[in-house]
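Fill in residues.
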């Protein structure tokens, strides 16, 4: 990415101090034009600390630009979120604080918008079992940038998408490992992933109660939890312990049911929801309802 006309103009406006020293900001710009971002960073970092430049809006703009470009080019390393991305953001803000003119604010805000795109890319990249915490940090920074440019921006659609994705990550970790006979330490970790998945699905539903994915996937998560509790129960378990487990699983299946019913209402006669409802009613020992949804599945297969 090359610098815009505003920066080109700055490049040729070489300023001399009383001692006839070359403008330090222009030196950093020269490195940028040579695609030497490492030296540009070194140059501008030392420049903004100098008394003559600490209140120079150009210096802070260039610092933000240099850091944002290194941030973009070094994608996707988690440590760069704070060491590069957040430094770029604060530098653009400092430039706006020093020079409040419309022209300066326009240039900085364009760069902050571009920076928000980079943060969004990081958030998407880190939506996995290892880096999910960095996805959240990146998304928070994306919102911070967007909100600075437009304080009234509406994040509802973005939040729904992101919370569903976060929930899916935690749901995936839970379901992948819960059947592997985990030890007590791992069980506690998986319980946290289960709780996090539920938490994020609930966040989605607090924004949009009619979100199909959050209703369906949360229902499946509850069902799988209950089914696993039953499947992992020893055949020679004490009758009192067994009764307690069955009571707990019944409550879990009951928590799953209204979510799956809602999913079926939102997208009627989908095979996945009909199967889900049949299995939930079977677990709840409701043979009449189980047959009702099994018949619907048979009809669907005929069609």
């Amino acid at each position: 990415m090359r610098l815009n006309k505003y920066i080109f103009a700055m490049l040729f406006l070489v300023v001399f101090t009383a001692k006839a020293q070359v403008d330090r900001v222009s030196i950093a710009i020269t490195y940028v034009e040579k695609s030497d971002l490492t030296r540009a960073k070194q140059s501008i970092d030392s420049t903004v600390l100098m008394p003559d430049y600490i209140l120079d809006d150009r210096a802070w703009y260039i610092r933000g630009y240099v850091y944002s470009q290194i941030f973009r080019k070094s994608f996707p390393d988690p440590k760069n979120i704070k060491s590069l991305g957040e430094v770029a953001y604060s530098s653009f803000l400092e430039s706006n604080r020093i020079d409040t003119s419309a022209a300066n604010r326009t240039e900085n805000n364009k760069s902050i918008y571009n920076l928000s795109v980079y943060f969004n890319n990081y958030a998407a990249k880190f939506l996995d079992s290892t880096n999910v915490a960095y996805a959240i940090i990146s998304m928070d920074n994306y919102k911070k940038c967007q909100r600075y440019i437009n304080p009234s921006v509406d994040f509802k659609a973005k939040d729904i998408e992101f919370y569903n994705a976060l929930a899916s990550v935690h749901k995936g970790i839970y379901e992948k490992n819960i059947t592997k006979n985990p030890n007590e330490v791992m069980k506690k970790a998986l319980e946290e992933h289960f709780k996090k998945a539920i938490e994020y699905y609930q966040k989605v539903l607090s924004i949009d109660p009619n979100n199909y994915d959050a209703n369906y996937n949360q229902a499946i998560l509850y069902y799988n939890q209950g089914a696993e509790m039953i499947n992992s129960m020893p055949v020679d378990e004490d009758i009192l312990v067994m009764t307690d487990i069955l009571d707990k699983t019944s409550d879990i299946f009951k928590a799953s049911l209204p979510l799956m019913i809602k999913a079926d209402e939102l997208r009627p006669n989908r095979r996945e929801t009909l199967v889900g409802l049949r299995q939930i009613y079977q677990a709840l020992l409701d043979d009449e309802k189980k047959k009702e949804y099994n018949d619907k599945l048979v009809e669907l297969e005929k069609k």
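DSSP finds 13 helices and no strands in the chain.
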